[in-house]
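Fig. S4 source data, part A: sequence.
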Amino acid sequence: MIISNFKKYYSIYPLSILYGMGVYFRNKLFDFGILKEESFPIPIINVGNITVGGTGKTPHTEYIVDLLTKSGYKVGVLSRGYKRKSNGFQLAGGNSTASQIGDEPFQIFSKFPNIILAVDSDRVRGIKNMLSLATPPQVIVLDDAYQHRYVKPGLNILLTDYNRLFFEDLLLPAGRLREQSSAKKRADIIVVTKCINPRKEEKEYIKKSINPTNNQSLFYTGFEYGELTPIKDGNNHKPTNDCQILIISGIAMPETFENEIKNNFTVADKINYPDHHDYDNATFEEIKYKFKNLKNKEKAIIVTEKDAVKIKENYDINDAIMDNIYYLPLQIKILDNQTAFFNQKITDYVAKNQRNG
């Protein structure tokens, strides 16, 4: 695949070389201690990747938050809050919105309202502000901070999409890599995400290519989708299998989401917006136009969980079209009967690194 990508993008590959030189030099400044990584007296788990685009960071973050919350810890989540309409440090609360803290952090906070969730592009400042709270978190999960090396996490989790593995990719702009594949060395846990029944020989190839060290653990995860959920509270109607569907998505890699819907419904049309798309009036007019043109009497709109929070925030909940919009929740599943081992890796790290440990 690397060879085929090189042939396809050979004209811009020199730009990837220049970009790679800059990334390599920056990482060496951290490796040599010229640029400083700051440690904190609290367990810090980083969930990230080295590619542009969706690898499933949010559902994996939610899985870890759920695990640690059920284990009795006061959990904090710190994210950059990509494309939010606010600046600096923002602490989520009852009046927070997706536009204020970002769509993915808002989705997490909506599911886990009792956690401490904050957004800050300066992760060091964000952690310090969270630790200065009257009731600070006992553990912090960093969402998408693998390249933010000013913070030294105690447990680094690297995600790679099964459909676009990092070792088969090229650096930006010819490929989707943010940094060289050698960045895998900073990971304690490597997770191959979005797997659908990978064969034994495929996993052997992946393991051989990643070549994890004795100190690194390799896991495979897939997605489990829940029941369709109406976006409007009090709507008890559910689409039948004969229902005609309009798919709406604003995520980086919508294929898995779309395939799940196609397995259960007749998809008449779809709209793929860019990742973190802003739902403005023009967007809603396009959605209403597409929905109106569906031929069946029974029809519905299915959106992603991330898009649902923005639609609810930006659209009149009393509009009749809201009665026909549903979202498809998802969560990760850890394959190969490794759930207990994965959970233990997380909880053991947190337990051993508590302030009063």
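Fig. S4 source data, part B ends here. The chain has a mean pLDDT of 93.
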